[in-house]
């Protein structure tokens, strides 16, 4: 039986998402202001990650379906980012094997989790 989310909890989630999004915008503004150098890349990635993580919170008061979709896509985006960091163009033969295994493992676990959730949702009878 689906749980109904109260209106106040939706707006609390929206406020939490707004704070996370403002934090991400602050990180991006800090990273993109001033002269560009190589030290700003982690700050930029942190800002983009905070913006992506806030998306389901911001969508919840308006559309539960969009919030659920974003809640499924954001971890997959993080998994794809880890794969890109592990095997991207800066990949070298001396890169850490444990990090590569963790990146592949996280992505596989996320795909299995989404597949099981999708199958469980498709078998649930409509009320």
Number of helices: 4
Number of strands: 0
Question: What characterizes the major β-sheet?
Answer: none
- Compute the gyration radius: what is it? 18 Å
* Cα separation of the termini: 9 Å
Percentage of helical residues?
over 70%
Overall mean pLDDT: 83
Shape: flat
pLDDT below 50 for ≥5 consecutive residues: which ranges?
none
Helices and strands: which structural class?
mainly alpha
Order of helices and strands: HHHH
SS strand fraction: under 5%
Domain count: the total is 2
Explain how this protein is built.
This protein has 4 helices and no strands. It is flat. The protein is mainly alpha-helical and 127 residues long. It folds into 2 domains: 62 residues, no CATH class; 64 residues. The longest helix has 27 residues.
List the helices and strands and how they pair.
Elements: H1 7-32, H2 41-59, H3 64-87, H4 97-123
